[in-house]
From TrEMBL, chains A, B:
Keyword annotations: Aminotransferase, Pyridoxal phosphate, Transferase
Lineage of the organism: Eukaryota, Viridiplantae, Streptophyta, Embryophyta, Tracheophyta
Family: Belongs to the class-I pyridoxal-phosphate-dependent aminotransferase family. LL-diaminopimelate aminotransferase subfamily.
Pfam family, one: Aminotran_1_2
InterPro entries associated with the record: Aminotransferase_I/II_large (IPR004839), DapL/ALD1 (IPR019942), PyrdxlP-dep_Trfase (IPR015424), PyrdxlP-dep_Trfase_major (IPR015421), PyrdxlP-dep_Trfase_small (IPR015422)
The organism of origin for this protein: Adiantum capillus-veneris (Maidenhair fern)
SUPFAM superfamilies for this protein: PLP-dependent transferases
Protein name, as recorded: Aminotransferase class I/classII large domain-containing protein
Domain Aminotransferase class I/classII large: 47-400
Length: 428, 428
């Protein structure tokens, strides 16, 4: 008895954060990994192909890596060494982002905060907004918006029967509304998270839709947190930035990233734009608090990653990035066509590296297991992205071409046998 | 009128975070920079030497940079490319930290969370603890502990007459108590921030002192957040880790960094240790919540920086790092001896790259201006680190040798003229 107590040690008297206690189950991707490991234990010979986490697979273009090598080497020399950088990033990188990615949109370099990635910026924005704001999210959406809202205390508890948190407005985005919410049904909130092209559905919002969103935010005095992490994949003319919509500077911040366009998922580089025009209800500029949060809670993005970011935005870098994105989009088209040819209803895949597939009559986790166990492919269950994602799988196009072709062949082999067909025979 | 409204744009109806409104004035270092710029406007010819921000100046040893170059190059190849890493870091790096820096201390690699730096980890720990905990800090201390406490809502407002926040326990560390607080005067708090060697005083706590601190935390059921960012500078036998104290695993997390030992201030790499034995009052392990925070609010340290971290901990890397630290400590000794020779009371500088100097009869900002305007040296005013820092300056030893010698000569030239002497003639 004494020994057991000693082994566990006495607890402190520090109360556990009640906000963390509210967090429901595991974060989506650890749970996917857990089930993948369990499958591999059962079927150790399985040649799994992982289209789950949306993790980039293709090398970073050499012109970009060369710039990072050069910076790493320079750090060993007296002339090239640099210590702390200004937390919001090198002015040269902020200028390159402003001029190459927002050239016609009147974004000042000083309105751009360079960071170590969009996920990290979402957490810092939540620290900025604090516990008292109310939030709305697309449903389905990237789980980090809601989870960070829970962590800072903006939400109520998890409602098991609804699969959602109390005090969060879930804006349903389904095939029935072309994946754009019916705003007449959405209550006013302080913050509206909106991602286009959407992760997970892969669908980009049109200019008309975003005009409605900005109008809705203006009418409600809300702030849109616009996530454009996949915007460079857009090729159908849809806006790549919320600032293409007149008036957005007064109601929106935008977060974005080099992860998916340049393969920087592991290098870590992103940015957030906070326009000077954006103000709280007391009239004070949001950008002032953002500067303070960045200076206090962040140490700047790695100087080597920033050198890579500058190279990404050179003429050669931009061309090379677009070649890699075109490759992933070809992957997405192969997946999309495969699912459609098999009778599935499938979406996205044109302006984004994700395909969103409906599995009629099955829950997302059932569909996940069906594909995992029969096709040996890891996907991401749609319900992990919100209640409106139930019945869908997100299939990532981030993979080597031979794996995409293999997935396509396996899907065809399994789902063309009559009992397994996507939309038809299931439920018999 | 209409035009002016249009120029400013309408404000949103989102309330400003009341916690951010509480934050007093600017963060210390932006204010230092503002005053430096003002001095340069008045005296554009001044050859300023900056011993203010504690920013590393010497190149990173080539053996470490070579590893980062290699990783940057590998990212352009199919074989060497890696996307998302596990957020808590490469297991090889976590193992190297456990085995090279905590070899006799029973720290498991899985208890180590690799990060983009100690400042960022402090902010994430505050998200972890949430708004309901009470905090104590050394006074003076690194301003980020208190500022992040304010941001997450743990404190009351700033009390102008006391130069401190309400609901924060300030543990006075002065020459009178050998820079270790009289714990009998300190109220119980949930969290105790403690840094050794202390930034700003440069003084390392002894084993006996840390045993008292751990005993105090145990008696109160508190959690110590132990900042060992400068621990590798210790050479007098004082503990380099809180885990050298028996029982610390049950009451302490430790944050640390490659910034000051390897010159990674701009590369960004640090770590936090959360022992499995550390538990909240409800018995649940703190490490579980830490895993969740890292997965949700963080994307991992840059893979290139992590490759550098592994090289830091190779035999060659460790030797090279210690050579650079020895160089900075020689700088510190030059500064310390200069101030003492001029009649100042000066502390630190033996186990840390900072010297802490008392300016009798002057406020810290007055002393800051005196040194800036007469000696053209930027320092950091002690009062910026807490009310008990009033009357002191922190002088950083992070500089090229010729600059340190020049500072020493300028100080001697100015302060040996009788009216200016440190402790003697002032006030006449």
């Amino acid at each position: 008895m004494a020994e057991r107590e000693r082994a566990e040690g006495p607890a402190t008297q520090v109360p556990r954060n009640t906000n963390l206690r509210k967090l429901h189950a595991g974060y989506l991707f650890p749970e996917i990994n857990r089930r993948r490991e369990a499958h591999l234990l059962k079927s150790p010979q399985a040649k799994l192909i992982n289209l789950g986490p949306g993790d980039t697979t293709e090398p970073i273009p050499p012109v970009i890596c060369a710039a990072m090598e050069l910076k790493a080497k320079a750090l060993s020399t007296s002339l090239g060494y640099t210590g702390y950088g200004f937390e919001p990033g090198l002015l040269s990188l902020r200028s390159a982002i402003a001029h190459k990615l927002y050239s016609s949109l009147d974004i000042k370099p000083t309105e751009i905060f360079v960071s170590d990635g969009a996920k990290c910026d979402i957490a810092r924005l939540q620290l900025l907004f604090g516990p008292k704001v109310s939030v709305a999210v697309q449903d389905p959406c990237f789980p980090v918006y809601v989870d960070t809202s829970v962590i800072v205390g903006q939400t109520g508890g998890f409602l098991d029967h609804l699969h959602q948190y109390n005090n969060v407005a879930y804006m349903r985005c389904t095939p029935e509304n072309s994946f754009f919410p019916d705003l007449s049904l959405i209550p006013r909130t302080d913050i509206i998270f909106f991602c286009s092209p959407s992760n997970p559905t892969g669908v980009a919002a049109s200019k008309t839709q975003l005009e409605r969103l900005v109008g809705f935010a203006k009418a409600n005095g809300s702030i849109i947190v616009y996530d454009s992490a996949y915007a460079m994949y857009i090729s159908d003319g849809s806006p790549k930035s919320i600032y293409e919509i007149p008036g957005a500077r007064e109601v929106a911040v935008e977060i974005s990233s080099f992860s998916k366009c340049a393969g920087f998922a592991g290098v870590r580089l992103g940015w957030t734009i906070v326009p000077e025009d954006l103000r709280y209800s007391d009239g004070s500029p949001v950008i002032d608090d953002c500067r303070r949060i960045m200076a206090t809670c962040f140490g700047g993005a790695s100087n080597i990653a920033q050198a890579g970011g500058i190279a990404c935005l050179s003429m050669e870098g931009l061309i090379a990035m677009h070649e890699v994105m075109a490759f992933y989009k070809e992957n997405a088209q192969i997946l999309l066509k495969t699912f459609i040819s098999l009778g599935f209803k499938a979406y996205g895949g044109a302006d984004a590296p994700y395909v969103w597939v409906k599995f009629e009559g099955r829950t997302s986790w059932d569909a996940f297991s069906e594909v995992l166990e029969n096709v040996n492919v890891v996907t991401a269950p749609g319900s992990g992205f919100g209640p409106a994602g139930e019945g869908f799988l997100r299939v990532s196009a981030f993979a080597h071409r031979e794996d995409i072709i293999e997935v396509s062949n396996r899907l065809k082999a399994f789902y063309t046998s009559s009992v397994n067909q996507g939309t038809q025979a299931f439920g018999i």
